[in-house]
Write a structure and sequence with these properties.
The structure holds two protein chains of two kinds.
Chain A: H1 2-6, H2 15-31, H3 36-59, E1 63-66, H4 69-79
Chain B: H1 9-22, H2 24-27, E1 29-40, E2 46-51, E3 56-61, H3 63-66, E4 78-88, E5 93-103, H4 108-123, E6 140-145, H5 150-162, E7 167-172, H6 180-193, E8 203-208, H7 222-230, E9 235-239, H8 247-251, E10 254-255, H9 259-266, H10 270-308, H11 311-354, H12 356-361, E11 366-368, E12 386-391, E13 394-399
Classes of the chains: A mainly alpha, B alpha/beta.
């Protein structure tokens, strides 16, 4: 668990992953059986994850890529022997 | 005679069956003719002939196929039927197994579409079991729609508002006209192959605005339907108006009533997610609070137990014991005193009975001789000698006149 906490959060981590982690952390806290240090560390981790979720939700801007037929044809020419 | 191969009748029948069934032209036939010799079997099958001036063909419409039809064949009517040619071995005749029936003059195109739908359905392209769930948190959504126009604009607007975390890969395509089916197929394949940073698209939205039946024809094309089926990721369709159901819609994993609705179905809502995250954060705080509270209580209980074992409490306990001891000792002493007093009294009474004075009071007397000794025998005195007799309240003086010994 400590390893997991110390792992730096990559900017490209998906909302889904962070959200799942947050759910797990909260479930762990609610389940109990942790030492005080562990509980505090988990809580801190959860707060951090929640902040990242909010940040992702607030900062995101829709990215649009156009996939044109010409590129497709070029791709196909390459892949065919 | 060697090399001559004599067939059993059933072998020939089997051969004919195979021949008919494996010839594509015979398994997908459209035939026009007039209905004659119509007969229904008790099992619900329909038998009839289709004929024109020169020929006739035996037809059978099985109950399972008849069940789907709006109207059954009627004798004397001219019909267009669809079906496959087969050899009925037991009856020794070749018959047309009909699956679609339409009065002549009704749009052949529609009938063709019905036949294609039937074929794809039998192949399992519409199977409910095959419908794949959409990802809860898509990261990349492929969109096939017309280059310009409202559809892609509507989709992007919804996504921007609802879940801008997603990335859109837009593969524009003609959505009507002759080139549309090929372009749609190509766009779907393009999206299926798309990959960036090791990931492809998580789902594809196939969308087109409303239009006439002819406008939507490309989405009823068999190639497009098969391309939708072949797509490796779930396909969400939104084609035409809510009441139009194209083949592509039927093959798609999910169908949305409009392109905007498709964008909504494809993504979670940012505002709702924010609320979920807030709730999770609150839950975490609650859980920590509960944890701290329970630790608090544990400490309180421990300190209570500790207090019970403190020296002060022990000394208090000892003190009480000592007090109890003293009380018991006091009781014991008092008891002894009382006993002693009783004994003393008894002794006093005893002494009282021995006191000579007491005896004198009961009327006894003590006699002394001249020498002052107590007389207990007549030998101690002689006649003429003085006697002193002590009684209770004084003494009597006298002389001995006579002595007698016993």
């Amino acid at each position: 668990m400590e390893l997991d906490m110390e792992r730096p959060r990559e900017a490209d981590e998906s909302f889904e992953e962070i959200y799942r982690q947050l759910e797990q952390v909260v479930a762990g806290l609610e389940q109990g059986g942790l030492s005080l240090e562990e509980a505090l560390a988990r809580f801190e981790q959860g707060t951090h994850l929640a902040e990242r979720c909010f940040w992702l939700l607030d900062q995101a801007e829709l990215r649009v890529t156009r996939l044109l037929a010409d590129e497709h044809l070029a791709d196909e020419a390459e892949s065919e022997p | 005679m060697t090399g001559l191969r004599v067939l059993a009748v059933s072998e020939l029948a089997w051969y004919l069956q195979q021949l008919f069934r494996l010839t594509p032209a015979l398994s997908d036939l459209w035939v026009r003719g007039e209905v004659a010799d119509l007969r229904r079997s008790p099992a619900g099958h329909c038998y009839f002939s289709l004929r024109d001036e020169e020929a006739q063909v035996k037809c059978v419409l099985f109950r399972s196929a008849a069940f789907r039809l709006a109207a059954l064949p009627q004798a004397g009517r001219t019909l267009v039927v669809h079906g496959s040619l087969d050899f009925y071995a037991a009856g020794g005749l070749c018959e047309l197994r009909v699956d679609l029936v339409s009065p002549e003059g009704v749009g052949l195109q529609r009938l063709q579409l019905e036949a294609l739908k039937l074929k794809l359905e039998q192949e399992g392209l519409f199977a409910v079991e095959r419908k794949r769930p959409l990802p809860a948190f898509p990261r990349r959504i492929g969109v096939v729609a017309s280059e310009g126009g409202a559809v892609i604009h509507d989709i992007l607007t919804v996504l921007r508002r609802r879940y801008p975390l997603v990335e859109v890969v837009f593969a524009p395509s003609a959505v009507q006209g002759e080139r549309a089916p090929d372009e749609l197929v190509a766009a779907l394949r393009r999206l299926g192959r798309f990959e960036r940073e090791g990931r492809g698209v998580d789902l594809v939205i196939l969308a087109r605005g409303g239009g006439s039946e002819d406008d939507l024809a490309a989405f009823n094309d068999e190639r497009v339907a098969r391309a939708v089926y072949a797509c490796q990721v779930p396909v969400l369709s939104a084609i035409g108006h809510e009441t139009d159901y194209t083949l592509a819609d039927l093959v798609a994993d999910l169908r949305a009533p409009t392109p905007s609705a498709a964008a909504e179905l494809a993504t979670p809502d940012r505002a709702a997610l924010g609320r979920d995250v807030r709730r999770l954060a609150d839950d975490a705080a609650d859980a920590l609070r509960a944890h701290l509270a329970s630790l608090h209580q544990e400490v309180a209980q421990s300190s209570q137990r500790l207090l019970l074992r403190s020296p002060e409490v022990l000394v208090q306990g000892h003190r009480a014991e000592v007090r109890a001891c003293l009380a018991r000792a006091e009781q014991r002493v008092l008891l002894h005193l009382r006993e002693a007093r009783y004994k003393l009294e008894a002794r006093r009474l005893q002494l009282l009975t021995l006191d000579p004075v007491g005896t004198l009071e009961r009327g006894y007397a003590i006699c002394y001789n001249q020498a002052g000794n107590v007389v207990t025998s007549p030998a101690q005195v002689a006649p003429g000698q003085a006697l002193r007799v002590q009684v209770s309240r004084g003494q009597v003086l006298g002389r001995v006149t006579e002595t007698q010994e016993w």
